[in-house]
Design brief:
The structure is a homodimer. Chain A is globular and about 65 Å long. By secondary structure, chain A is of the alpha/beta class. Chain A folds into 2 domains: 253 residues, L-amino peptidase D-ALA esterase/amidase; 104 residues, ArgJ beta chain, C-terminal domain (Ubiquitin-like (UB roll), Roll), CATH 3.10.20. The first copy, chain A, contains 10 helices and 15 strands.
Amino acid sequence: MSFFASRWVEAPDGVEELDAAMLAPGFKAAGVACGVKRSGALDLGMVRCDEPKPVSAALFTSNAAAAAPVRLSRERCDLGSLRGIVVNSGNANAATGGLGRDNAAWMQGAGAAACGAAVEHVAVASTGVIGVQLPMDAVKRGVADAGRALTDTGGLDFARSILTTDNGPKQCTLRHDGVTISAQAKGAGMMQPGFATLLAFIQTDAVIADAEPLLRRAADASFGRVTVDGQQSTNDSLFLQSNGASGRPLAGGLLEAVMLQLALELVVDGEGASRVAKVQVSEAASGEEAESVARAIANSQLVQTAVFGRDANPGRIIQAAGMALAGGDLPIGIDAVEADELGGDGFEVELGLRLGRGEHSAHVYASDLTYDYIKLNAEYTT
Amino acid sequence: MSFFASRWVEAPDGVEELDAAMLAPGFKAAGVACGVKRSGALDLGMVRCDEPKPVSAALFTSNAAAAAPVRLSRERCDLGSLRGIVVNSGNANAATGGLGRDNAAWMQGAGAAACGAAVEHVAVASTGVIGVQLPMDAVKRGVADAGRALTDTGGLDFARSILTTDNGPKQCTLRHDGVTISAQAKGAGMMQPGFATLLAFIQTDAVIADAEPLLRRAADASFGRVTVDGQQSTNDSLFLQSNGASGRPLAGGLLEAVMLQLALELVVDGEGASRVAKVQVSEAASGEEAESVARAIANSQLVQTAVFGRDANPGRIIQAAGMALAGGDLPIGIDAVEADELGGDGFEVELGLRLGRGEHSAHVYASDLTYDYIKLNAEYTT
């Protein structure tokens, strides 16, 4: 078992890892290169459920400047029964106005034709640079190519076709108690809050009744707990599709474990990240207070550089907590901080802060802030 | 005139620049080295008004984990009539519990003796590492030495004695229409919000009636408008003292100009900063909306690295604005962004965003995010 690599993920016993190129039974996928990315790398992906009436759910960014494909998918799809999803990388189709909206709609229509599905059963997603129109000739060619390339071993090409600044694909195919689940995700920056900035696609042959609340709960405990730079994307999209072919339910905790491991891989692959920190805040007066303090610590550039520098600096943790509670009174000393792991050699480090104000707690996973973050983002251009 | 270097500062006509070592008439200052800083640099400062009943005002951080000297000065001083202020650098005396409080009180008492003033007329301030107790033997020696060293040309030593990671002192002595104003500030990180993270001291022989509202208004337009890393300090303190000796009022706009220029110098000297950006948000539905969007853009790591990289990347500006308005709808295109100066060679650059939602506007000044920020903060240790 190599997928569940983090000490912070609890997977159900007896999970078997399959070739990640294989999708869950009854699903096909493809990833092709159509020229949106100048590098010639894979940049257009498609995933399709063979079954005409799958159960699905989708969650999107709450960013007010949401991208055209997010708006279109929210408004023009039957999100509870998606068969196909078409994705491009290299261009976010965000802040692109009426033409961007038309292009997203065209991509949906072409995707529906390529999938053999009704338009409202096909969602669209994009990721990449903001504020530039999609090169539609390339996208048209890509959608047609991807439709022809759909295969039940297309998981790896699909996972590669959705990447931007990621160092590599994040995906898995797992079997447990007669049920298969496959998942592909991308994301390496602009992560936080709501649920993390990312694209993620999950397919399963399990029987799922209430897909939307199930997905939302699992997202709150996984993608909703990670941050790289405190930035929220215009394009976050998360899809779960199920065809029920196995006749069996998902084991409790399996979806959460898959999503948390993927979320942690996004943090680890956060732009330039070298370590990942779990920030645990306890003894807060309310859940909201615990949450806001944990996020303030996790997103503090001073804490993130201390994680990078292996500097067990409790003062910065207290300062960030005090900022989150500005106007109040938090007279705590450095004995309220647990930061021993910060100064050590570990890759996964835990930071703790006891507020001494009540019984609520919250945690967030964060990357560190490194020279490579600056390098990537000062040089990644329109 | 070399002090008013920024194109964004409007100083009254006819301001004359004096030797910055000279304080306003009737004030004395000193800066000595007592050993709080291991480097042997100046680390204990004192400023004193000769006049026994000056008019003064002070503003402090709203951080809930405020440092001991901030709490003590707020609670145990007659802030409307401060004669003396004692400051140490190299140690913040924050998150230091009951012993830290006692040490701040002792510093106040010793400062009062050295100044020849009643205890409640002497404030204390500290800046430096959080969570470490002050070395009181060193501080005792320093307070006594500083008291003996007080002189009307001590402005430069005083300005140097309050520095931490600053590249150099920020100060001025100006004369206008028969009135003199001198000021000294420090700050190069943990700047934002409320008013910026800093220590600043202003002395004048002008006649000032309502010092506190005057100082608050000027702070809102200057130190309250700058950010380096979105972090709020535990130790922010801002003091204005006036002895009225000139018999004349301050010219309108002079205090604001002095404080804005000092605030911009803090941004320019922000840890590792290479450029300073003025973020202007217009056409917002409310003043609060304009403010929150401007701060979201100014504090975005993605925008700050784009400023560093001279990358005119309008998408990141729209993304940050959309995040500030999460849950709402902001369907704007990149034509709403003015980012031309970003890609140029200028040191002071202006960024603009029109929200198209109303008539309110706000601006914030921000540093960029550079390799040197990481270097300074990953290596600056307890």
